[in-house]
Structures are given as structure tokens and as C-alpha cells.
């Protein structure tokens, strides 16, 4: 009770007494990528122009056109431009070419934004000068779109799902606890590796289908025994959270995930995992101490009382003292976490 109370104060909701006890034995921490290690929504990360073009011009045209689109990548570009205090202009003749790109007119200038294939098909020139940068950005797992005006490439903008601020620190904390940290994701190998290297993951399982996550947990349980914990946020994580020995849900995630989990991190930050582990260890050592204290009293006093060597009044006092020492010692746990 004291342990889960301390957890609750810190935004770590522990559903069962069992979870607090199994947590300390966890050896493998499996982390979902999107929404758990990363924010789960794309952000504008790069804007690169061809020679002689101002970055503000590139962003003005890109954001003005994308402002007419509802696509998450478009929203990330508009949001990123606003953060850089770019003024967004009126667009006319907006057209969306399926998933491949968008076009329209800004200040009477025709603008085309899309992937390299689309722009090549449309006969845009100057694409070669962007190829090297584009390759590098894609290597890092970013999504790149090229901006062209009047058939001439101006530059490119890249968006990517970005890391949560605390992820690197939290994973370092997991390593300090001696945990083997595994990242599991449906993304392709390249995008997954990019994130894994950045945060310091030990093992990556990429291209895992939602239903494959449960099998991945089972396989790890075969390798490491029943000491596998999993952190996730989405509906597709729920079965794996149930299968794991300790299921941990990110608070901002799906209700189903929270329902399936033993522990919920209300603040939505991975650092809660490290705190929960410390809490579980401290709580368990208190339980052991209490057991020693309480049985100590009984082992010493019961034979004496049975032999008639102990006044009943002292027996009453000893019984009460044993209960009080258990409660008092438990409450001392709070001191360790202030
Ligand atoms: Mg997720």
C-alpha cells in the first residue's frame, strides 16, 4: 500500500500488489517505438535549398501550399514554418495528386511539392543537386519532399517523428539497472535503426506486425524467462502488454492499452519506468524486513509465553509492538522517495 501510494504521487499507477513484486525481477524491457520512445507525430526537421535560394522563400511556398492540405506531413510543414515565423500566403488552384504531391499557385507563381518521382515526371530540373542531401536524410529515417516552382527545384523539406525529450535519459537509466532494452516496431529496418542508434537500444525488432508483438514477447520469455516487461501506448500493443510479465501503458495512450497494463505512467514519460523499478525494489526489501521483524517477535515470544515465562500483559505489548514496527518501517519507505 505504501509503495503504490508513493507511485501514485509520482504519476505511476500500479494496479496490483503482484506487479510491484514482479517488477523488481524484470530483466528485459521491451519498448514500442511510435508514441512511446517518440512523440508519435511528425515535425519539420530540415529545410535545404539549392544554391541562391533563401530558406524563407522555400518555407513560405511550401507552407502556403501545404496549408491547404490535411495530411499529417503537410500539417507538420505548416506548423514548423509558423514556429520559424514564416508568413503563410494565399493559395489558388490547389490540387492534390493523390499521395504523391500537391500543387497550387502562390503570388501567381506555380508551385509543385512532392516526391522525387513525381517531380521527375513533371519535368522539374535541378533535382540532381538535392540527391545527396536527400539520401542522407532518408538514411536517418526522415520523409523528404521536394519543392519546385516554375519547373525548377528550389529545395527540400524533411519531416520526422521526433524523440520525446526524456527518452535518451530514461533508456540510460534502464541500462544502469542492468536491463536489456529491446525496441519493437512495425516500421522498416532503416527508420527503426535510426531511432534505436539515437537512443541507445540494445536490440531492434523491426517490421513487426501488430499481431506479431505478442509472439515477440513470447520469444523473449523463452530466452530470458518470465522477466519481460513491455511499454506501449497503442491499441495494437494491448495483447503484448497482457502477455508481458509486467505490462506498462503510457498514460496518453489508448484506453485499451491502459486496460491491459499492470502499470500506467500517467505523465506519459519513459522515465517513469526507471522510477517504478526503483520503487518495486525498495518496496520488496521493505516486505522482507517486515517479515523478519514480525516473525522475530513471534519466534522469541511464543515459546516464552508457552512456557509460562512471559506475563500476558507483556505478550499484548509485544504483539502490538510487532504490528507497529511493521507499519512504521513501511512508512519509512516514503523517506527514501522524497
Ligand atoms: Mg505506439
Any overview of this molecule?
With 338 residues, the protein is an alpha/beta fold. It has two domains: 18-39 and 164-269, 3-Layer(aba) Sandwich (Rossmann fold); 42-162, Calcium-transporting ATPase, cytoplasmic domain N (3-Layer(aba) Sandwich). Helix content is 49%, strand content 23%. It has 15 helices and 13 strands. It is elongated and about 105 Å long. Bound molecules: magnesium ion. The site of magnesium ion (MG) has 7 residues, from helix 3. Residues 32, 34-36, 232-234 line the site of magnesium ion.
The class by helix and strand makeup works out as: alpha/beta
The total beta strand count reads: 13
CATH H-level homologous superfamily name of the largest domain: HAD superfamily/HAD-like
Order of SSEs: HEHEHEHHEEEHHEEHEHEHEHEHEHHH
Mean pLDDT: 91
The fraction of residues in strands falls at 15-25%
What is the radius of gyration?
Answer: 28 Å
Number of helices: 15
Overall morphology: elongated
Largest sheet: 7 strands, mixed
Topology of this structure?
Elements: H1 2-9, E1 12-14, H2 17-23, E2 28-32, H3 33-37, E3 38-49, H4 55-66, H5 72-83, E4 92-97, E5 101-106, E6 109-114, H6 116-121, H7 131-139, E7 143-149, E8 152-163, H8 167-176, E9 180-184, H9 189-199, E10 203-205, H10 212-224, E11 228-232, H11 238-243, E12 246-250, H12 255-260, E13 263-265, H13 271-306, H14 312-331, H15 333-336
Parallel strand pairs: 2-9, 2-11, 9-10, 11-12, 12-13
Antiparallel strand pairs: 1-13, 3-8, 4-5, 5-6, 6-7, 7-8
Magnesium ion binds next to helix 3.
Amino acid at each position: 500500500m505504501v509503495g503504490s501510494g508513493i507511485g501514485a504521487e509520482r504519476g505511476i499507477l500500479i494496479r496490483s500488489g503482484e506487479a510491484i513484486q514482479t517488477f523488481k525481477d524484470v530483466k528485459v524491457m521491451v519498448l514500442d517505438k511510435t508514441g512511446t520512445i517518440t512523440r508519435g507525430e511528425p515535425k519539420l526537421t530540415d529545410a535545404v535549398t539549392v544554391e541562391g535560394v533563401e530558406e524563407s522563400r522555400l518555407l513560405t511556398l511550401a507552407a502556403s501550399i501545404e496549408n491547404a492540405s490535411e495530411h499529417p506531413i503537410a500539417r507538420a510543414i505548416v506548423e514548423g514554418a509558423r514556429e520559424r515565423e514564416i508568413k503563410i500566403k494565399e493559395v489558388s488552384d490547389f490540387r492534390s495528386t493523390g499521395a504523391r504531391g500537391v500543387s497550387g499557385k502562390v503570388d501567381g507563381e506555380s508551385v509543385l511539392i512532392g516526391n522525387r518521382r513525381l517531380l521527375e515526371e513533371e519535368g522539374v530540373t535541378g533535382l540532381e543537386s538535392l540527391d545527396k542531401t536527400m539520401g542522407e536524410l532518408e538514411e536517418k529515417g526522415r520523409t523528404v519532399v521536394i519543392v519546385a516552382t516554375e519547373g525548377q527545384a528550389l529545395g527540400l523539406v524533411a519531416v520526422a517523428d521526433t524523440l520525446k525529450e526524456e527518452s535518451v535519459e530514461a533508456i540510460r537509466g534502464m541500462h544502469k539497472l542492468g536491463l536489456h532494452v529491446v525496441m519493437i516496431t512495425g516500421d522498416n529496418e532503416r527508420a527503426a535503426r535510426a531511432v534505436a542508434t539515437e537512443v541507445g537500444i540494445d536490440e531492434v525488432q523491426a517490421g513487426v506486425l501488430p499481431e506479431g508483438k505478442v509472439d515477440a514477447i513470447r520469444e523473449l520469455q523463452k530466452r530470458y524467462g518470465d522477466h519481460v516487461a513491455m511499454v506501449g501506448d497503442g491499441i495494437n500493443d494491448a495483447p503484448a502488454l497482457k502477455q508481458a510479465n509486467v505490462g506498462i501503458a503510457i498514460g496518453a495512450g489508448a484506453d485499451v492499452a491502459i486496460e491491459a497494463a499492470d502499470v500506467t505512467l500517467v505523465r506519459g514519460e519513459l522515465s517513469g519506468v526507471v522510477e517504478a523499478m526503483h520503487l518495486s525494489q525498495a518496496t520488496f526489501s521493505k516486505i522482507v524486513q517486515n517479515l523478519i521483524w514480525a516473525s522475530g517477535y513471534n519466534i522469541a515470544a511464543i515459546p516464552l509465553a508457552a512456557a509460562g515465562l512471559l506475563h500476558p500483559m507483556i505478550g499484548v505489548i509485544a504483539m502490538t509492538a510487532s504490528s507497529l514496527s511493521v507499519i512504521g518501517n513501511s512508512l519509512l519507505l516514503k523517506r527514501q522517495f522524497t
